[in-house]
Design goal:
mainly beta, 3 helices, 14 strands, elongated
Amino acid sequence: MIATADKWVKDNPNSGDVLIWDILDLEKTLNLLPSEKIANRMYQNKDTYSFKKVTSDWGLDKKYFSNGAAYADDDDDDDDGDLDLDLDLVVNNINEEAFIYKNNTKKNYIRVALKSKKNKPVLGTRINLNNKEAKQVIETTNVRGIYSTSEAKVHFGLGNEKKVGKIKLIGQIIR
């Protein structure tokens, strides 16, 4: 790199301001950087404050340059015009098509959307859900990483349960 810069300055002694792009061979520089596609990882909550690695079981073990993920209900499984709210997974990949992983579960859930009096989402509130022996805690946010955004609603999976014991809001005052 120093030799390249020295040569450029000798060949262009009166060029004025020098930019890094004037002396840097981008292709050579990029070839110096290690680059290896890796598999994404997925873990399943086991309801006992533990998680099970399910990457291969769920088909997420392909190696790519993934740089973001979000969840959304991307399909209409029940043909009645309503979304089924089973939260499919969307994974963005660099220089490749995005992955959409379809969620095939048919479990119960509750979704919570906090809105201000001006109908704006209320972010930064912690929501505690207690259901029999299970407890879930989610903080309202729509950011899921530097490049990933999901809706501002929170989604609690209830499994086979049909009722919620108690929901408690902690944090933001809704105005």
